[in-house]
């Protein structure tokens, strides 16, 4: 047979290593630079042609184990079969943990030699015992209130008037304005469940290194001490407000 000035010879025969109906074809090149080279092909019972072992494996992989099949010779290679069985016997991982000869601590590796391992503790580990179970609080960002600076509340009539702080409440923090302090204090009163005491550190230490000495759980105000007189005056203001409200309701 002639093809592009290359003379080739074809031989096709049944392949006993594959299921019934499969054929193996040898194509030998008689002339040219590749003279003597033999190409091997396989044909399924339906006539489908296969040029390589991977193609054959993809086609027959679910119905036949071709790991020991010699594609070039068309036979089952007994040497490959023996090596595969030996490797499976040596590296059978399913029985590693159930082996009674393995006394912990042991090597949990694929080594064929089961050697015990001695563990030396140089210090006590408290990683597991220190872990807190349940939901964890998210970390709080320092000076997040400063993102709200220069923002004012308004309604249909325009900007709402600002609120002034009592004299005993003083802002504390680098470049902190009264507006920022009010926002910080209002948020703490609304969100936090702990008492509002203000920052416990001194003004000098906080101004020098706020990232260390500033407590994000407290508003940006200096430490505040509430006395009994303060409580009494506040109660009086509340009572006066109630009386005015009651009088307004009666008049209406």
Which secondary structure elements does this structure contain, and how are they paired or packed?
Layout: E1 2-3, E2 6-14, E3 23-29, E4 38-43, E5 49-50, H1 53-60, E6 69-70, E7 75-76, H2 78-90, H3 127-130, E8 154-155, E9 158-159, H4 178-191, H5 203-208, H6 210-213, H7 228-251
Antiparallel strand pairs: 1-2, 2-3, 3-4, 4-5, 6-7, 8-9
Question: Can you describe what's shown?
Answer:
The structure is a single chain. The longest helix is centred in the last third of the chain and has 24 residues, at 228-251. 29% of the residues lie in helices and 13% in strands. It is of the alpha+beta class and 252 residues long. Strands 1-2-3-4-5 form a 5-stranded antiparallel beta sheet. The chain has a two-stranded antiparallel ribbon with strand order 6-7. Strand 1 (2-3) and strand 2 form a beta hairpin.
Features:
single chain, 252 residues, alpha+beta, 5-stranded antiparallel sheet, two-stranded antiparallel ribbon, 7 helices, elongated
The helix/strand class is alpha+beta
Distance between the first and last residues' Cα: 117 Å
Order of helices and strands: EEEEEHEEHHEEHHHH
Give the uncertain stretches in residue-range form. none
**Total DSSP E strands:** 9
Q: Kindly report the spatial arrangement of strands forming the biggest sheet.
A: 1-2-3-4-5
Radius of gyration: 43 Å
The number of helices is 7
Report the biggest beta sheet as strand number plus sense, adding barrel if it closes: 5 strands, antiparallel
Q: What percent of residues adopt helix (DSSP H or I)?
A: 25-40%
Quaternary structure: single chain
**Percentage of residues in DSSP E strands:** 5-15%
């Amino acid at each position: 047979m002639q093809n592009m000035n290359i003379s080739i010879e074809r031989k096709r025969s049944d392949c006993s290593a594959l299921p019934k109906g499969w054929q193996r074809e040898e194509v030998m090149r008689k002339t040219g630079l590749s003279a003597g080279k033999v190409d091997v092909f396989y044909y399924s019972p339906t006539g489908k042609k296969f040029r390589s072992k991977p193609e054959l494996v993809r086609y027959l992989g679910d119905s036949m184990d071709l790991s020991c099949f010699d594609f070039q010779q068309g036979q089952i290679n007994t040497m490959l079969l023996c090596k595969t069985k030996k490797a499976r016997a040596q590296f059978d991982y399913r029985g590693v943990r159930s082996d009674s000869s393995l006394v912990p601590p042991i090597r949990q590796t694929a080594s064929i030699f089961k050697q015990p391992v001695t563990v030396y503790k140089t210090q006590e580990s408290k990683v597991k015992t220190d872990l807190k179970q349940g939901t964890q609080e998210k970390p709080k960002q320092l000076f997040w209130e400063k993102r709200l600076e220069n923002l004012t509340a308004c309604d249909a009539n325009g900007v709402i008037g600002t609120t002034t702080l009592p004299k005993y409440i003083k802002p504390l923090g680098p470049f902190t304005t009264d507006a920022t302090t009010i926002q910080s204090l209002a948020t703490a009163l609304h969100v936090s469940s702990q008492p509002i005491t203000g920052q416990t550190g001194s003004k000098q230490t906080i101004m020098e290194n706020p990232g260390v000495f500033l407590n994000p759980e407290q508003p940006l105000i200096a430490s505040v001490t509430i006395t009994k007189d303060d409580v009494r005056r506040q109660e009086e203001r509340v009572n006066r407000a109630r009386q005015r409200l009651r009088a307004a309701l009666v008049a209406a």
